[in-house]
Amino acid sequence: MDKENQINYNHSLNLVDRKNISINGIKKIDSFDNEEFLIDSIMGYIVIKGVDLEIIKLDTKDGYVSIKGTINSINYIDENITKKNKENSIINRLFK
């Protein structure tokens, strides 16, 4: 059984008071720091931006992550974007 078959196929996102976010249906976290997370989910990539962001709980077997901090934005990125384009955009943003 491959890793994708082990992931929970339900996708949900729960945001409480812009301070805590829980997401089900994640495949992996591609990158993160205290201001931005890039998460690969079953519904496409999710970019979470904020202040003082940190992982509270990560369960890769069940495809679950919980993050705390001040959440400023949540964006889904179209799945058709290649990984190289995503990496380039993150690198470009870091070195602006």
Structure description:
The protein is α+β, with helices and mostly antiparallel strands and 96 residues long. The chain has 2 helices and 6 strands. The protein has helices spanning 3-6, 83-94; strands spanning 12-16, 20-24, 26-32, 36-41, 44-59, 64-77. Strands 1-2-6-5-4-3 form a 6-stranded antiparallel sheet, with no helix packed on it.
Side-by-side strand order of the widest sheet: 1-2-6-5-4-3
CATH architecture: Sandwich
Mean pLDDT: 84
Helicity level: 10-25%
Features:
55% strand; 96 residues; Immunoglobulin-like; alpha+beta; single chain
What is the secondary structure topology, with strand pairs?
Blueprint (H helix, E strand, L loop, with lengths): L2 H4 L5 E5 L3 E5 L1 E7 L3 E6 L2 E16 L4 E14 L5 H12 L2
Antiparallel strand pairs: 1-2, 2-6, 3-4, 4-5, 5-6
Short synopsis of the structure:
This protein has helices at residues 3-6, 83-94, and strands at 12-16, 20-24, 26-32, 36-41, 44-59, 64-77. By secondary structure, it is an alpha+beta fold. The model has no long low-confidence stretch (mean pLDDT 84).
